Amino acid sequence: MRLVIAEKHSVAVAIAQALGTPVERDGYIETDDGVMVSWAQGHLVELADPEAYEGEAWASREWSMDTLPVDPRQWRWRVSGAKGASARFKRLVALIRDPGVDGLVNACDPDREGEAIFRRIMAGAHSGKPVLRLWVASLDGQAIRDAWARMRPDSAYDGLAAAADARAKADWLVGMNASRAHTLAWHRPLSLGRVRTPTLGMVVRRDEAIEHHTPTPFWHLEVHMGGWTLHSPRITDHDAAVRLLDAAQGRTVNVTRVERRREHDRPPALFDLTGLQQAMNTRYGVTAEHTLDALQHLYEMGLATYPRTDSRYITHDDLPALRLLLHPRYALGFLDTGQVTAIHDLAQAGALDPARCVDDGKVAGHTAILPTGRLTYDTFTRDLTDTERQAVTTIVTRMWAACSTDRVHDTTRVTAAIDAPAGEGPVHGIPLRASGDTPVTPGWTLIEHPATARDTPHGEHKNGERRDEGDGTIPAGLMEGTYPQAGPATLAEGHTAPPRPFTEASLLAAMEHASRFVADRDLKAALDDDTSHSGGIGTPATRAGIIEQLVRTGNLERKGRQIHSTPAGRLLIAVAVDELKDVKLTAQWEQTLADIEHGDADPQTFLDQIRAECARLPRRTMRLAGRDDLRALAGTTREKESYGPCPRCGAPVVRTGGIWQCSTNHSRKNPDGTWQLSEGCGYRIYPTICGRKLTDAVVRRALAGKHPKITGLVSKAGRKFDARLEPDPDRGIRLAFNDRPGGRRRSASGRQSA
Question: Where is this region: Disordered (predicted)?
Answer without folding.
Answer: 450-474, 724-754
